[in-house]
User: What shape does this take?
Amino acid sequence: MTKSRANSQGKTPGRKRGFLRRFRADSSGVTAIEFGIVAAPFFALMVALIEVSLVFFANFTLENAVDKASRLIRTGQAQTQGLSEAQFKQSICDGVTGVYDCMGGLKLDVLRFDDFTGINLPDPLDGNGELRTNFSFDPGASSDVVVVRAFYEWNLIANFPGGLGNMPGGGRLLVATAAFRNEPFGD
Assistant: This one.
């Protein structure tokens, strides 16, 4: 009698067990399948990480530029030199070169108040959630309280549901604000 007996289908039980053992040990396509399962969430996470980084970098850059340019108003240089809104906007845009289209997309709202308790800022968005276009430019006089706000609509690379978008079109509204009392420059 031979060591392995043929079953009714002509296969020996030893060969069947060997095939199953080899099948379990074979991992030639597992890496490709695992990558296929993990790739989409991994790349989505990478795009989201890059998007968040860009938005925070752009907003931080805008905040620094507004803070630096607001010093022109605070010290009275903007008022004594007669800087227009476009010239003041240019001083902000000089601080964000290369980050985005500053001159084309930046909106400024410069408001004067008598004191800090009287500050009442209008909503920058209209009833439809769109950025308004009719902002003020009043740098005030000596010892006035001034609020400088800058707005920029940032277009997102990928707008994930529940993501960074806070505008109707899926973009992100970047906002930078500086509030201060003007120095007594004219006294």
Remarks:
- The mean pLDDT is 85.
- Helices lie at 13-25, 30-74, 77-80, 85-93, 102-105.
- The beta strands are 107-113, 145-154, 172-181.
- Residues 57-181 form one domain.
